[in-house]
Specification:
The protein is mostly helical and 185 residues long. It contains eleven helices and four strands; from the N terminus they run E-E-H-H-E-H-H-H-H-H-H-H-H-E-H. It has a two-stranded antiparallel sheet. Strand 1 and strand 2 form a beta hairpin. Helix 3 runs parallel beside helix 11 and helix 5 runs antiparallel to helix 7. The longest helix is centred in the middle third of the chain and has 21 residues. The chain is globular, with a radius of gyration of 19 Å.
Length: 185
Protein backbone atom coordinates (compact mmCIF):
# COMPACT_ATOMS: atom_id res chain seq x y z
CA UNK A 1 0.00 0.00 0.00
CA UNK A 2 1.38 3.41 -0.97
CA UNK A 3 1.99 5.75 1.93
CA UNK A 4 3.39 9.18 2.52
CA UNK A 5 5.13 7.95 5.68
CA UNK A 6 8.89 7.70 5.87
CA UNK A 7 10.69 6.20 8.84
CA UNK A 8 13.97 7.58 10.13
CA UNK A 9 15.64 4.65 11.82
CA UNK A 10 16.85 5.84 15.19
CA UNK A 11 15.91 5.20 18.79
CA UNK A 12 13.15 6.18 19.21
CA UNK A 13 12.18 6.17 15.53
CA UNK A 14 11.19 9.39 13.83
CA UNK A 15 8.60 9.62 11.09
CA UNK A 16 7.99 12.01 8.24
CA UNK A 17 4.43 12.07 6.95
CA UNK A 18 3.48 14.11 3.91
CA UNK A 19 0.03 15.63 4.15
CA UNK A 20 -2.18 17.49 1.75
CA UNK A 21 -4.33 20.52 2.43
CA UNK A 22 -7.77 19.02 1.92
CA UNK A 23 -10.58 18.29 4.38
CA UNK A 24 -9.45 15.28 6.38
CA UNK A 25 -12.75 13.50 5.77
CA UNK A 26 -11.84 13.19 2.08
CA UNK A 27 -8.64 11.26 2.76
CA UNK A 28 -8.78 9.80 6.29
CA UNK A 29 -10.15 6.42 5.21
CA UNK A 30 -7.29 6.09 2.70
CA UNK A 31 -4.47 6.81 5.12
CA UNK A 32 -2.71 3.51 5.81
CA UNK A 33 -2.88 2.04 9.29
CA UNK A 34 0.92 2.26 9.69
CA UNK A 35 0.70 6.05 9.31
CA UNK A 36 -2.08 6.29 11.88
CA UNK A 37 -0.18 3.99 14.25
CA UNK A 38 3.00 6.10 13.93
CA UNK A 39 0.99 9.23 14.75
CA UNK A 40 -0.59 7.62 17.82
CA UNK A 41 2.73 6.20 19.04
CA UNK A 42 4.61 9.49 18.70
CA UNK A 43 5.03 11.74 21.70
CA UNK A 44 5.97 14.79 19.59
CA UNK A 45 4.43 15.93 16.32
CA UNK A 46 5.75 18.72 14.12
CA UNK A 47 3.78 20.24 11.28
CA UNK A 48 4.61 22.36 8.28
CA UNK A 49 3.06 25.34 10.09
CA UNK A 50 1.31 25.65 13.43
CA UNK A 51 -2.25 26.07 12.20
CA UNK A 52 -3.53 26.21 15.79
CA UNK A 53 -1.55 29.41 16.46
CA UNK A 54 -3.51 32.65 15.89
CA UNK A 55 -0.25 34.45 14.99
CA UNK A 56 0.38 31.93 12.21
CA UNK A 57 -3.11 32.47 10.81
CA UNK A 58 -2.74 36.24 11.07
CA UNK A 59 0.67 36.08 9.40
CA UNK A 60 -0.71 33.98 6.54
CA UNK A 61 -3.52 36.49 6.01
CA UNK A 62 -1.10 39.44 6.04
CA UNK A 63 1.37 37.92 3.61
CA UNK A 64 -1.34 37.45 1.01
CA UNK A 65 -1.94 41.17 0.67
CA UNK A 66 -0.56 43.43 -2.01
CA UNK A 67 1.63 46.30 -0.83
CA UNK A 68 -0.27 49.16 0.81
CA UNK A 69 -2.15 51.24 -1.74
CA UNK A 70 -2.20 48.56 -4.46
CA UNK A 71 -5.29 46.68 -5.62
CA UNK A 72 -5.68 43.62 -7.81
CA UNK A 73 -7.29 45.82 -10.45
CA UNK A 74 -3.96 47.68 -10.69
CA UNK A 75 -1.90 44.55 -11.37
CA UNK A 76 -4.16 42.29 -13.46
CA UNK A 77 -4.97 42.86 -17.14
CA UNK A 78 -8.36 44.58 -17.36
CA UNK A 79 -10.17 41.70 -19.09
CA UNK A 80 -8.81 39.11 -16.64
CA UNK A 81 -9.91 41.26 -13.71
CA UNK A 82 -13.43 41.58 -15.21
CA UNK A 83 -13.65 37.80 -15.74
CA UNK A 84 -12.50 37.19 -12.18
CA UNK A 85 -15.06 39.63 -10.79
CA UNK A 86 -17.86 38.00 -12.83
CA UNK A 87 -16.77 34.56 -11.64
CA UNK A 88 -16.76 35.65 -8.00
CA UNK A 89 -20.21 37.22 -8.46
CA UNK A 90 -21.37 33.84 -9.84
CA UNK A 91 -19.83 32.00 -6.86
CA UNK A 92 -21.56 34.34 -4.43
CA UNK A 93 -24.87 33.67 -6.20
CA UNK A 94 -24.36 29.87 -6.17
CA UNK A 95 -23.00 29.55 -2.64
CA UNK A 96 -26.39 29.23 -0.90
CA UNK A 97 -27.26 26.33 -3.24
CA UNK A 98 -23.95 24.58 -2.59
CA UNK A 99 -24.13 24.69 1.19
CA UNK A 100 -25.19 21.56 3.03
CA UNK A 101 -28.13 21.38 5.43
CA UNK A 102 -25.59 20.58 8.14
CA UNK A 103 -23.70 23.82 7.44
CA UNK A 104 -26.94 25.81 7.55
CA UNK A 105 -27.98 23.95 10.71
CA UNK A 106 -24.80 25.14 12.39
CA UNK A 107 -25.77 28.73 11.62
CA UNK A 108 -23.41 29.19 8.69
CA UNK A 109 -24.68 31.79 6.23
CA UNK A 110 -23.64 31.98 2.59
CA UNK A 111 -22.59 35.64 2.83
CA UNK A 112 -20.45 34.92 5.89
CA UNK A 113 -18.85 31.92 4.19
CA UNK A 114 -18.14 33.89 1.01
CA UNK A 115 -16.55 36.71 3.00
CA UNK A 116 -14.54 34.26 5.09
CA UNK A 117 -13.06 32.75 1.92
CA UNK A 118 -13.00 35.63 -0.54
CA UNK A 119 -13.22 38.71 1.65
CA UNK A 120 -10.80 41.45 0.65
CA UNK A 121 -9.93 39.56 -2.55
CA UNK A 122 -9.25 42.79 -4.40
CA UNK A 123 -6.30 43.46 -2.09
CA UNK A 124 -4.71 40.00 -2.41
CA UNK A 125 -1.71 39.10 -4.53
CA UNK A 126 -2.57 37.22 -7.74
CA UNK A 127 -1.09 33.89 -6.59
CA UNK A 128 -3.29 33.90 -3.48
CA UNK A 129 -6.36 34.84 -5.52
CA UNK A 130 -5.63 31.91 -7.83
CA UNK A 131 -5.45 29.54 -4.84
CA UNK A 132 -8.64 31.07 -3.44
CA UNK A 133 -10.52 30.65 -6.73
CA UNK A 134 -9.37 27.02 -6.95
CA UNK A 135 -10.98 26.40 -3.56
CA UNK A 136 -14.31 27.95 -4.54
CA UNK A 137 -15.88 24.82 -6.01
CA UNK A 138 -19.11 23.17 -4.94
CA UNK A 139 -17.20 20.22 -3.48
CA UNK A 140 -14.88 22.47 -1.48
CA UNK A 141 -17.76 24.63 -0.24
CA UNK A 142 -19.61 21.53 0.98
CA UNK A 143 -16.48 20.59 2.96
CA UNK A 144 -16.15 23.95 4.72
CA UNK A 145 -16.25 23.55 8.45
CA UNK A 146 -14.27 20.29 8.24
CA UNK A 147 -10.60 20.85 9.16
CA UNK A 148 -7.91 20.12 6.58
CA UNK A 149 -5.79 17.08 7.36
CA UNK A 150 -2.91 19.10 8.86
CA UNK A 151 -5.21 20.98 11.22
CA UNK A 152 -7.12 17.84 12.16
CA UNK A 153 -3.86 16.08 13.08
CA UNK A 154 -2.69 19.14 15.04
CA UNK A 155 -5.97 19.25 16.95
CA UNK A 156 -5.74 15.52 17.64
CA UNK A 157 -2.13 15.90 18.81
CA UNK A 158 -3.15 18.64 21.23
CA UNK A 159 -6.11 16.60 22.45
CA UNK A 160 -3.73 13.66 23.06
CA UNK A 161 -1.34 16.00 24.95
CA UNK A 162 1.50 15.48 22.47
CA UNK A 163 4.28 18.02 22.10
CA UNK A 164 3.63 19.96 18.91
CA UNK A 165 5.60 22.40 16.81
CA UNK A 166 6.24 23.65 13.30
CA UNK A 167 9.16 23.14 10.95
CA UNK A 168 8.53 26.31 8.93
CA UNK A 169 7.68 29.91 9.63
CA UNK A 170 4.97 31.81 7.78
CA UNK A 171 7.63 33.81 5.92
CA UNK A 172 9.14 30.61 4.55
CA UNK A 173 5.75 29.73 3.07
CA UNK A 174 4.84 33.20 1.84
CA UNK A 175 8.01 34.61 0.34
CA UNK A 176 8.43 31.95 -2.37
CA UNK A 177 4.80 32.28 -3.46
CA UNK A 178 4.88 36.05 -3.29
CA UNK A 179 8.09 36.00 -5.34
CA UNK A 180 6.37 34.43 -8.35
CA UNK A 181 5.98 36.81 -11.26
CA UNK A 182 2.71 37.21 -13.14
CA UNK A 183 3.65 34.74 -15.90
CA UNK A 184 4.38 32.05 -13.27
CA UNK A 185 0.95 32.42 -11.70
Amino acid sequence: LWSFLWTIRRNPPAYLFGTIHVPYTRVWDFIPDNSKAAFHASSSVYFELDLTDPYTISGLASCQMLPHGENLQDVLPRELYRRLKRHLDYIKLMLPHWMTPDQRGKGLYADYLFNAIAGNWERKRPVWVMLMVNSLTETDIRSRGVPVLDLYLAQEAERMKKTTGAVERVEEQCHPLNGLNFSQV
